[in-house]
């Protein structure tokens, strides 16, 4: 027996928090009866419906995916561009991307059908480190990199402190390779941060997510996360929420 909101989250309908809201709003039925109380548990044979639609229970699956450039991080695209889903025709479960990577950004992306897990990785209170490698125009001065470390003013507020490392500089081509680690997930944040200090991004790749990296994968390839890796991510996220309050 599992809590009703957890079953809804695992079915990929919504995060656990949103599932709780749906229950309280009377939009969930169990065996034809409306349930408005949290804490109700259901078994494998119980029929659960959300907004009149029966949910199909799936075992949770988790993949680490190396997203190529010029691929959209969405389930469907109205412009008929290639999406991350095109790389998982062999997966019967209804998976979706956790968070986003820009069309022209490559790198590490998690794919799952576990709504609760996805919420933990993307909710602002769970601060998971994400490390990017950026090739930028020009060679930033130390003071400019310090700005990134302290936080820069963007139109949606000041960014949280970041970790920044200049990996290399090509004075002939006037470009630099910089490693940047942040835990926020605002839209196009890394690109906007570098634009703010006057060094636009030419190429961007998400290299790591927490302790995960792309070792052994080429662009377009994926591998299942191990149960231990999934548990580690959950523990790490919850610990970060407690230590960074």
Automatic annotation (TrEMBL):
SUPFAM superfamilies: Alpha-L RNA-binding motif, Pseudouridine synthase. Transmembrane segments: none annotated. Pfam families: PseudoU_synth_2, S4. Residues 2-65 form the RNA-binding S4 domain. Keywords: Isomerase, RNA-binding. Belongs to the pseudouridine synthase RsuA family. This is Pseudouridine synthase. It comes from Pallidibacillus pasinlerensis.
